[in-house]
UniProtKB/TrEMBL annotation:
The active site is at residue 170. The keyword Oxidoreductase applies. This is 2-hydroxy-3-oxopropionate reductase. Residues 5-161 form the 6-phosphogluconate dehydrogenase NADP-binding domain. Residues 165-283 form the 3-hydroxyisobutyrate dehydrogenase-like NAD-binding domain. GO terms for molecular function: 2-hydroxy-3-oxopropionate reductase activity; NAD binding; NADP binding. It comes from Fundidesulfovibrio magnetotacticus. InterPro entries: 6-PGluconate_DH-like_C_sf (IPR008927), 6PGD_dom2 (IPR013328), 6PGDH_NADP-bd (IPR006115), HIBADH-like_NADP-bd (IPR029154), HIBADH-related (IPR015815), HIBADH-related_NP60_sf (IPR051265), NAD(P)-bd_dom_sf (IPR036291). Its EC number is 1.1.1.60. Keywords: NAD, Oxidoreductase. Gene3D superfamilies: N-(1-d-carboxylethyl)-l-norvaline Dehydrogenase, domain 2, NAD(P)-binding Rossmann-like Domain. It is an enzyme of class 1 (oxidoreductase). PANTHER family: CYTOKINE-LIKE NUCLEAR FACTOR N-PAC, OXIDOREDUCTASE GLYR1-RELATED. It holds the Pfam family NAD_binding_11.
């Protein structure tokens, strides 16, 4: 079934996701806060405001930078709010804290709209390839109805339970992701101090049971010391703050998340925020 989809947020991820949805035959209109570059929305209808987008589409996908941006699109000037009610489904694919997601579900439910909590696992290249993993939370029937849309953007949909369990899964995944990236970079800095080369260490990491897609994707960045953003470091820094705040609220131990937040703080203070999060190696090198 082809859906009438409004997509708010045409950044690194949203642009690729909206295009893939349109390629699959869904009727996609888009809104972006800043003007779109030529070709970014080729073949797509462009809404001038979030309200206009909500009035012309039934399924409204949010792929934004965080709670502030989501609030602005929903409840700010010319926001979607007045158009939300029965017959509308809001799908938040942005990374937000579970507590915020639960509040959002309550507000939208009170307005009569269906809310689905569906952040993604994956960054720029999987988004372009339509190979994201969708971490879906919300009413099971609503998630099932959205599967054709989700599968146009991803390779797998994992049902996590009622909202905000999709966002809780995203926090859990990014806790692991930060630890993996920091640990690989820490290995390189540590081994180099003992006379090993990055090339040799990466051959070992990628040649045995430690090998994984993440390390393969970041290998050339680390060897060439060039970090074009696939997942900007500033976004991992933000997500680690969400993880540590959530852990504090739940009184749950998350020692690596708190330690990694401090390292990513250092990376932000060094002006690395716009680079890929693999650039955290430069923060570690600055500690030597």
């Amino acid at each position: 079934m082809k859906l009438a989809v409004g997509f708010a947020g045409m950044g690194i991820m949203g642009k690729a996701m909206a295009r893939n949805a349109a390629k699959a035959g869904h009727h996609v209109a888009v809104y972006n806060r800043s003007p779109l570059a030529s070709g970014d929305a080729e073949g797509l209808e462009i809404a001038a405001t979030p309200l206009e987008l909500a009035r012309c589409r039934d399924v409204l996908v949010l792929m934004l930078t965080g709670p502030g941006a989501v609030d602005a699109v929903l409840w700010g000037e010319n926001g979607m709010g007045p158009a939300l009610g029965p017959g509308k489904t809001v799908v938040n694919m942005s990374t937000v804290p579970p507590a915020y997601c639960a509040s959002l579900a309550g507000k939208l439910g009170a307005a009569g709209a269906v809310f689905v909590d569906a952040p993604v696992s994956g960054s720029k290249v999987p988004a372009q390839q339509g190979a994201l993993v969708i971490l879906a939370g919300g009413p099971r029937d609503a998630v099932d109805a959205l599967e054709p849309l989700f599968m146009s953007m991803g390779k797998k949909v994992v049902y996590c339970g009622e909202a905000p369990k999709g966002s809780m899964m995203k926090m859990s995944v990014n806790l692991l992701l930060a630890s993996m990236m920091e640990s690989l970079c820490e290995m390189l800095v540590f081994g180099r101090a003992g006379g090993l080369t990055d090339e040799a260490m990466l051959q070992v990491a990628l040649g045995g049971p430690l090998a994984c897609d993440l390390f393969k994707v970041k290998e050339q960045m680390l060897l060439q010391r060039k970090f074009p953003a696939q997942f900007p470091l500033k976004h991992m820094h933000k997500d680690l703050r969400f993880v540590t705040d959530t852990a504090t609220d739940m009184r749950c131990p998350a020692p690596s998340a708190f330690a990694n937040l401090q390292i990513f703080n250092q990376a932000m203070s060094k002006g690395l925020g716009e680079l890929d999060f693999a650039a955290v190696i430069e923060a570690l090198e600055g500690m030597v």
